[in-house]
Write a structure and sequence with these properties.
CATH architecture of the largest domain: Sandwich
CATH class of the largest domain: Mainly Beta
Oligomer: single chain
Order of helices and strands: HEHEHEEEEEEEEEEEEEEEEEEE
Strand content: 35-45%
Structural class: alpha+beta
Shape: elongated
Number of helices: 3
Distance between the termini: 87 Å
Radius of gyration: 26 Å
Largest sheet: 6 strands, antiparallel
Length: 293
């Protein structure tokens, strides 16, 4: 009996010892994975296809890395954005002895966005890739500085920089490519330039890269398939913009002659007394008075 007990305690001791050793290795692995994997980009500096990062990886970064475009599961901000997978540009700064750090750039009109500090002293934030030029086209040139405890600094991890005219530098990140947003649907826009008081602006969008022609039919155009032809961009997204009065509308897409629903609009209704199903959109009143544009 005593031998069996001693045997059991011996096994238990080595099991605990192994767990402790592997736990220590796990911490190092987390640090190397979250930093090393961030370095594992393709030749254009983009994440390899299929790579998705998690919040704990950002919280486990042990060193700062140069900016890069990432996809990550953003559980922390899910209640606000109602979107689990976030795509954006990761900015990091090594500030173990620093209290506050923010990133300021042309993508925020040079307003500083606070960065979060993890337990290893690495500040980080992810900026959505929404920078536009004067023609409302994507602008790939992200210029920025860090504000570190009130003082401005260029990014020491990013070798791409230019003189700022004041004896220092402005860092620059060039976004070569970003993911195509495939899960898109109709959306009511706010404060669009030139918008009439009695109308709302609605963007109808659908991702159909293999389609040749797509038209929009609905209550607002008497179901006329020749009224609203949609324009296809190089990413395979068809778009048309409509000015609609507030109210409820049914609509469908005619794709190469075949009628279909709006793929990522969960709202649908039966059309009158027929068995036909249409996508549904509610165009609400403005939440706030229209701004003067």
């Amino acid at each position: 009996m005593k031998k069996k007990k001693l045997y059991f305690l011996t096994i238990l001791f080595f099991a605990c010892l192994s767990a402790a050793v592997f736990a220590e290795d796990a911490v190092d692995w987390i640090g190397s994975y979250s930093s090393g994997e961030m370095e594992g980009q393709d030749q254009n500096g983009q994440p390899k296809e299929g790579n998705v990062y998690y919040y704990w990886q950002l919280e486990s970064l042990k060193r700062a890395v140069s900016p890069r475009y990432i996809r990550f599961v953003d559980i922390e901000n899910y209640p606000n954005r109602n979107k689990l997978l976030t795509r954006g540009i990761l900015f990091t700064y090594n500030g173990l002895m620093v209290d506050e750090t923010g990133v300021c750039g042309n993508f925020t009109s040079w307003r500083c966005v606070p960065m979060k500090k993890n337990k290893f002293g690495i500040f980080y934030t992810v900026i959505l890739p929404e920078l536009k030029n004067r023609n409302k086209e994507d602008n790939p040139h992200y210029e920025y500085k860090f504000q570190v405890d009130g003082l401005f600094e260029f990014d020491p991890e990013n070798q791409n920089k230019k003189e700022d005219g004041e004896g220092s530098y402005i860092s620059e990140y060039i976004l070569e490519q970003k993911d195509i947003e495939k899960q898109i649907s109709a959306m009511v826009l706010e404060n669009v330039p030139g918008e009439e008081f009695d109308f709302r602006t609605v963007d109808f969008k659908i991702y159909l890269p293999d389609a040749e022609t797509v038209t929009l039919v609905g209550d607002f155009n008497n179901l006329n398939p020749e009224h609203d032809y949609m324009k296809k961009d190089r990413n395979g997204i068809f778009t048309v913009r409509k000015k609609l009065k507030t109210g409820e509308y049914l609509y469908n897409y005619i794709v190469d002659g075949k009628t279909m629903l709006d793929t990522y609009n969960p709202e649908s209704r039966q059309k009158g007394n027929t068995e036909e199903i249409s996508s549904f959109i509610d165009v609400p009143d403005r939440a706030a008075p229209m701004e003067k544009l």
